[in-house]
Design a protein that fits this description.
235 residues; single chain; 5-stranded antiparallel beta sheet; 10 strands; Phosphatase 2c, domain 1
């Protein structure tokens, strides 16, 4: 079977003057990460860069995802206390191991999987909006829900140093994975993501299409996407 193919891309958008998203992609073995800094200050820049760098270094040295995240929690938390301001970021990762893939999740960046025509969201948003939607506290498109999307319950830099969600995944031929920040997830509707990942095109084209769609929707946030495609059984 041919090797997987993958691509990553990021755009600043129109809301911010700088890009506080950070992505990493390497493919042998697969290590894909996206992080989204919270706010637009120095704590945002530090948190996303530090979280990605520490996760990549930890995994490559043979350490566990949870240990790398714990180190990032302490480092970012210490920085926030030192500057007396917000320092935090989301984190979504997909890591290849000898027994398959492991996904790690903190915050509201996301991991999707397209398999046999079905696009599934594999991660949970750690926000009050997600809790409200699941428990019926308010309508999904209400002002309360819009406000609650900015209330994260877990993230890198949280004073409680929460652990990430971990999910074991066994990839199959034809699977396509998308890691993205909320600049993509909040601006590109589900059906457009499905259409894009279903294209008979390479991951670089899929990433470019998703970022174009985020721009067309207003470019209201930094937008970052990583697409990982496993060859079909017929390849």
């Amino acid at each position: 079977m041919k090797a997987l193919t993958a691509a990553a891309g990021s755009r600043t958008g129109r809301r911010y003057s700088a890009n506080y998203d950070v992505a990493h992609l390497s493919t042998d073995p697969l290590l894909a990460v996206v992080a989204d800094g919270m706010g637009d200050g120095p704590g945002s820049t530090m948190a996303s860069r530090t979280a990605v760098d520490l996760l990549v270094a930890g995994v490559r040295s043979g350490g566990s995802i949870t240990d790398a995240v714990a180190t990032a929690q302490r480092r970012v938390g210490d920085y926030g206390r030192r500057i007396g301001g917000l320092a935090g970021c989301t984190l979504t990762a997909l890591v290849e191991s000898p027994d398959g893939l492991w996904a790690a999740q903190l915050g509201d960046s996301r991991l999707y999987r397209l398999r046999s025509g079905l696009l599934e969201l594999l991660t949970v948003d750690h926000t009050m909006a997600w809790l409200g939607a699941v428990n019926g506290w308010y309508a999904f498109d209400s002002p309360q829900a819009a406000s609650a999307r900015y209330q994260l319950t877990r993230y890198i830099g949280h004073p409680g140093e929460p652990e990430p969600d971990l999910l074991k995944i066994t990839p199959r031929p034809g699977d396509v994975f998308l890691l993205c920040t909320d600049g993509v997830a909040e601006q590109v509707p589900y059906h457009r993501i499905l259409e894009t990942l279903s294209q008979q095109a390479g991951p670089d084209t899929m990433v470019r299409t998703l970022l174009d769609l985020a721009d067309a929707a207003g470019g209201n946030d930094n937008a970052t996407a990583v697409v990982v495609s496993y060859p079909s059984a017929a390849s």
